Design the sequence.
């Protein structure tokens, strides 16, 4: 019972963290792209 509960919370944390990490990656990528564009200009 306890293991299934902890497993469920781990899945919940994963569901919560994936979009956050994805957003951070997108923001970091956009910043790097903006930096490269400003460097070219």
Sequence:
């Amino acid at each position: 019972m306890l293991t299934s509960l902890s497993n469920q919370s781990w899945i919940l944390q994963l569901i919560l963290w994936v979009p956050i990490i994805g957003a951070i990656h997108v923001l970091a990528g956009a910043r790097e792209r903006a930096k490269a564009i400003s460097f070219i200009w």
Remarks:
- The mean pLDDT is 86.
- Residues 32 and 38 are 10 Å apart (CA to CA).
- Residues 2-40 form the longest helix (39 residues).
- The chain has one helix and no strands.
